[in-house]
Write a structure and sequence with these properties.
The chain is an alpha+beta fold. It contains four helices and twelve strands; from the N terminus they run βββββββαβββββααα. It has two domains: 36 residues, no CATH class; 144 residues, Nucleoside Triphosphate Pyrophosphohydrolase. A four-stranded mixed β-sheet has the order 7-4-10-9. It has a three-stranded antiparallel β-sheet with strand order 1-2-3, with no helix packed on it. β5 and β6 form a beta hairpin. The longest helix is centred in the C-terminal third of the chain and has 14 residues. It is globular and about 60 Å long.
């Protein structure tokens, strides 16, 4: 029977020698850090995308329809199926930003907004977080309020169909997958048992 590998110690923080902003764009900065490895003592350069926090929100109607959006994404040059989301602006809390994005992108508002969880989108190269909310009892209250760079189609999918949309590759956005993971994890019988 093969043995176990030896236990290793927790990685230590790297000592930052220098940190500079190389380029600044509207939604992110490119930062270069030079840091020393605590294991080898050698210094290396690392490139980081600095961004404001992000939010997304799962809008759920009284009849268990998820209000979703389809929009063209320039990174992949494809149209994606997502939930509303965006940047947390200076004047916003994450919750306020989620409610604002819901209204602007879909024309919906919610009777109840609950925090579901936070993830780091890609801690290897990004410094920000994405906060996810659930909008229960979502109702249509008016027109979308899109900016000049947005072209969004609002679509509805039954909540029970979401796992199938994920497994068949119609939902591929990683932060949307994380949002639904938080939702289904907290809605499972096991989660209910943990709360008792």
């Amino acid at each position: 029977m093969p043995g176990k590998p030896p236990e290793t110690s927790n990685p230590l923080p790297w000592n930052i020698l220098s940190s500079t902003i190389d380029q600044s764009y509207r939604i992110f900065n490119i930062r270069t850090d030079r840091a020393i490895s605590p294991r080898t003592g050698q210094s290396h350069e690392f490139f980081v995308l600095e961004s404001r926090p992000w939010v997304n929100i799962i809008p759920l109607t009284a009849d268990s329809q998820v209000v979703m959006v389809r929009q063209y994404r320039h990174g992949t040059r494809k149209t994606t199926l997502e939930i509303p989301g965006g940047l947390v602006e200076d004047e916003d809390t994450p919750r306020q930003a989620a409610i604002r994005e819901l209204s602007e992108e879909t024309g919906y508002s919610a009777g109840d907004v609950r925090f579901l969880g936070t993830v780091h989108p890609n801690p290897a190269i990004q410094n920000n977080e994405c906060h996810t909310y659930l909008a229960s009892q979502a109702v249509w209250t008016g027109r979308q309020s899109l900016d000049e760079k947005e072209d969004i189609q609002v679509v509805h999918h039954r909540l029970e169909d979401i796992p199938g949309l994920i497994t068949n590759g119609q939902i591929t956005h990683s932060l949307v997958l994380c949002a639904f993971f938080h939702y289904f994890l907290q809605s499972s019988p096991l989660a209910a048992a943990d709360r008792r």
